[in-house]
Amino acid sequence: MIYDDFVSTLIKNDSRNVFKKVRDNNKVSQAMPALYSLYDPVDVEFKYNHGITRMTSLSEMNELQSIYNYVDADCIFADCNGDPIYMKNGQVYTTLHGSDGSKAEKLASSFEEFIKQVIKQNQ
After folding, report:
1. Residue 40's beta-bridge partner residues?
2. Dmax of the chain from CA atoms?
3. Where are the beta strands (DSSP E) in 1-123?
4. Alpha-carbon distance 23 to 119, whole Å?
5. Is 53:78 a contact under the CB 8 Å cutoff?
């Protein structure tokens, strides 16, 4: 499964990365990427497009949504050098921190495509 590959690649790349298996996926909203129903990225950072991306844990998810409340997103799940990375209509985008989000950059057509990009960049 792609999520297992994602987790093992990131832990192999940096042993400080911590994922926990999700035991109660009732805390996971449908807007969140499917990864969160299996794994909680408790403390996870990785290289992505020349920056360091930090994934948000389930316990920090609401806080991240309020920090980037100006972004029209279904779910903000990470940030890269302070810029939010988020899901909108099933696709993955980023925008500049503090901007109105009108100049969003599409990173991937799906969360799974985003995961494949991360795996490739971190092997």
Report:
1. 20
2. 37
3. 18-21, 39-48, 51-55, 75-80, 83-88, 91-94, 105-108
4. 25
5. yes
Which residues are bridge partners to 52 per DSSP? Answer: 47
Could you give the angle at the alpha carbon of 88 between the alpha carbons of 67 and 81, nearest 5°? 45
Calculate the alpha carbon distances from 62 to 69, 77, 106 in Å. Answer: 10, 10, 23
Q: What is the pLDDT of residue 114?
A: 97
Which domains occur in the chain, in start order?
A: 2-121 (3.40.1580.20)
Lookup: tokens for 77: 């799940």
The pLDDT-based confidence of 23 (bands split at 50, 70, 90) is: confident
| DSSP structural state of residue 57 | P
C-alpha span between 123 and 13 (Å, rounded): 7
**Residue owning tokens 């408790």:** 42
Give pLDDT tens digits for 54-107. 999 999 999 999 999 889 899 999 999 999 999 999 999 999 876 666 689 999
Angle between helices 111-121 and 2-13 (to 10 degrees): 30
